[in-house]
Amino acid sequence: MTVALPGAPPGEDKAVLNVEVCLRPDSAAELGAVRAAALQFITSLSSVRYAEGPLHPPPGQHPLLDAHVQSIRVVDLAPGRIPPGRLLLQWDVAWQVCVFALDSEGAADDDEGEDGTPAYREWVLPAAEFHGSWETLYYESEIKQRLLRYATSALLFSESRVNPQLISWNRVVLLHGPPGTGKTSLCQALAQKLTIRLGDKYPQGGVLVEVNAHSLFSKWFSESGKLVSRLFAKIQEVVDEPDTLVFVLIDEVESLTAARKGAVAGSEPADAIRAVNALLTRLDQLKAAPNVMVLTTSNITEAIDLAFVDRADIKAYIGNPNEQARYEILRGCIAELATAGIITDSHPLLSHPEAACLAEEPLAAAAGEAAAGEAAAYAAAEAAADGGSPGEAGAGGSCCMEEETESLQAQYLSRCLLEVARAADGFSGRTLRKLPFLAHASHDFPGGRCSCLQYVSALLAAVQAERADRATLSSGGHT
Asked: Is it true that the peptide bond before 58 is cis, omega within 30 degrees of 0?
């Protein structure tokens, strides 16, 4: 829902700010009433920063929001158009407000797959399990914005009944790349995000059906076709609900190719190739329904069946995170540990562009130890923060000194973290998200808690240990 204030200067482009309003788990409020209250709050602001983050209604002024809303956040800023942090007046802004409630039931498994392996898992969206996952995914290119634009256009074309004989689109996405780069997580987060964005058009919410491609091929003759039929019969039941947005996620889609090639080579029963063909045919039939989208992933780009590649509208490569993505992933992990109280001193670390400007050259340090001058500066900053009276400078001077101290510490820690991110070059997103735990587990911190500087040093040691372990594995255990 887009809202522009009356009286805005005509003909001017407005900055679109997407606002997501998440209800409390126990709320039974009507979504329209909450949306109206949220709009009343945000349009009462005289100005707003062009930045992602929470908006906090003044306590007591919006009773409905106080009672029923868990969070209000500005999300998904369009990159490049407006400088981040710029102050915008109300007539500069077009608001898009989405209100949603999270489903906490978790995934439902089908138990009719081969050898008891579930043929699929099903989530009701928006799901609590995926809440916030979109914001924690970092990639080198603007792949998230590209996928959002594509999916929105594809569903709009279907809803508008554009003639598919003249303009062809399949609503099929293929994400490929090395393991551990977040392809499956991105598909799940995309389904969640679209369900929230399109809540007005699909009031029943969304359903995500994650297909286990391996389970569709039975060792018993003719069983594979039955498994495919049962799977798509279930999917069709959901698709037949026009107010529900349906996502079909097929992970490791290259296994379809393996089954087809194996059948041709004689190592797999001919039934397998019939099952693959049946699956592709049923996917084609889903095009007739305007409320369904197929999301697929592959770890082995070269092994993807060309018959399937032709069906994909978008074929996006998801590689290992670059330096900026690695830095932001680790920065987010440190913020989480500070929130949890494991890191005892909270410093707002700089963004990657700011940290990179501070450190054009690597730190002259090893294992997290700083160069002498910087270490002394940090120690002086900590001493100033810990003790001391305002002295002759007075309260105003003390305030300025504290701000300068905080800035110095944040700059130094950000520069240290940047070196950790650079040292982790080539690591996958999955590995990067394990490092914060491994860094903590490999050090005997008193009471399990540590300062931010101690933790960043432990992170660098964890990166070095991970590299050493990989080198040992690559050499077959010989040194």
From this structure: no
Rank 15-24, 298-307, 399-408 by mean pLDDT and report only the highest.
Answer: 15-24
Pairwise CA distance, residues 346 & 434, whole Å = 21
What tokens does 467 get? 């590299």
Reduce the DSSP state of residue 429 to 3 states and report it. helix
DSSP 3-state assignment of 181?
Answer: coil
Sign of the Cα pseudo-torsion (325, 326, 327, 333, in order)? positive
How do 87-89 and 47-49 pair as beta strands?
Answer: antiparallel
Nearest to 132 by CA among 99, 102, 166: 102
Angle at 125 between CA 51 and CA 294, to 5 degrees: 95
Query: Could you tell me if 209 and 238 are in contact, meaning their C-beta atoms sit under 8 angstroms apart?
Result: yes
pTM attached to this predicted model: 0.83
- Bridge partners of 96? 2, 18
Is there a contact between 120 and 279 (Cβ–Cβ < 8 Å)? no
Would you say 133 and 56 are in contact if contact means Cβ atoms under 8 Å apart?
no
Length of the chain: 479
How many Cβ atoms from other residues are within 10 Å of residue 118's Cβ? 18
In this structure, how many other beta carbons lie within 10 angstroms of the beta carbon of residue 444? Answer: 6
pLDDT at 286 over 60: yes
Q: Give the integer Cα–Cα distance in Å for 22 and 35.
A: 10
DSSP code of residue 368: T
User: Is 377 within 8 Å of 408 (Cβ atoms)?
Assistant: yes
Going 134 to 321 to 82 to 13, the CA torsion angle's sign is negative
The alpha carbons of the chain give a radius of gyration, in whole angstroms, of 26
pLDDT tens-digit profile of 180-232?
A: 999 999 999 999 999 999 999 999 999 999 987 776 665 555 666 677 777 88
